[in-house]
What we know:
Blueprint: E1 2-5, H1 20-28, E2 32-36, H2 47-52, E3 56-58, H3 61-65, E4 70-72, H4 79-82, E5 90-93, H5 101-109, E6 113-116, H6 131-150, E7 158-160, E8 163-165, E9 169-173, H7 177-188, E10 192-196, H8 202-208, E11 212-213, H9 232-246, E12 251-254, H10 269-274, E13 280-283, E14 300-303, E15 306-309, H11 314-317, H12 319-337, E16 338-339, E17 342-343, H13 350-355, H14 362-367
Parallel strand pairs: 1-2, 1-4, 2-3, 4-5, 5-6, 9-10, 9-12, 10-11, 12-13, 13-15
Antiparallel strand pairs: 7-8, 14-15, 16-17
Bound molecules: nicotinamide-adenine-dinucleotide.
Amino acid sequence: VTIGVARETAAGERRTALTPETCKKLVASGAEVRVERGLGVAAHFADAAYTDAGAVLVDDAPAALSGAAIVLCVRPPEVDRLQLLDPGAVLVGVLQPEADDARGEAIVTRGLVAFPLERLPRTTRAQSMDVLSSQAGMAGYKAVLIGAQLAPRFFPMLTTAAGTIRPSKVLVVGAGVAGLQAIATAKRLGAQVEGFDVRPETREQIESLGGRFLDLGVSAAGEGGYARALTDEERAEQQRRLGEHLRGIDVAVCTAAVPGRPAPKIVTAAMVAGMRPGSVIVDLAAESGGNCEATRPGETVDVDGVIVAGPLDLASMGATHASDMFARNVFNFVQLLLVEGALAPDWHDELLARTVWPARPAAERVAD
Ligand code: NAD
């Protein structure tokens, strides 16, 4: 089987879906791997490392992609890239086919078999392929470091000849994968850490990391281990209690999300106005609109002394390790598609059947 990987084209994207490590494994399993020159440079993987791993280096994206049976990517390829692929070619990456009509249409009209990895069910078996989790881990980690960098305070408690410094109070809003990594990271830096979420099971997870669970009296577990959107009454209750609490917080890290919807607005402009000057909000949800009303995606703004950062591409800030993890996730997924080195997807496998886009009707899956 021929596997093609081209450089990512999205602005700010530094990661790659293939590392020399996963390239070597794919080559060992009998694949021909074609890599566009410079593929891993932004993530600090040199071309020579790919050739050492058995890749065929090619000069441009068309040479990497046309004729490939499987194409790996981090972000959705542009339409002109999709046009390069052969009908029936398999595309694996974070593809968001429904977010862009032209791209979705190109996938359909071109007859591509797309596996948007963000659609993977979050089952135990899928964990090793779960790019949302692996990338959220890096995002949560970097978000805390940005908060520490912007804050005019220490995170840890210090007892010095110049007196005692009290530890910073960090609040993590949303305790999913990114939020839990944020809690762990802030804790390691010595802050007093609290977290809250609308899924009740997060209490134990937050406490196991040494954080305190902030109970805002709202519980809203949804389907598939995710949260559901709050009702108006629930939101009002959450906001009343949160607004009070934020007055004593030095750094708030916002990570709350509800699948398929814009990020819930949790921190209102009035809450920001109530925070102490010098406090910081890092809104990891900026990419999907932000959890804070004052967030401007991609910018850091000063709102009457409160610093509000809306960083984008957080996972790309740790491009080497983020790529290591992303590429292993992709490699593990590709194993589901191959039988003795040949492309032979088993449509009875629920991970493939539930991830493929456009969705296949169950009858057709069985017929295959
Ligand atoms: P996510 O990015 O969709 O959301 C982040 C967090 O925001 C979630 O914890 C959610 O509950 C929370 N949230 C939503 N609305 C909120 C609100 N109004 N106030 C406060 N918090 C709010 O979620 P995620 O991090 O990708 O994953 C969420 C869940 O999926 C977790 O339980 C995670 O452990 C689970 N998961 C399971 C597997 C697996 O078993 N294979 C893999 C990954 C994640």
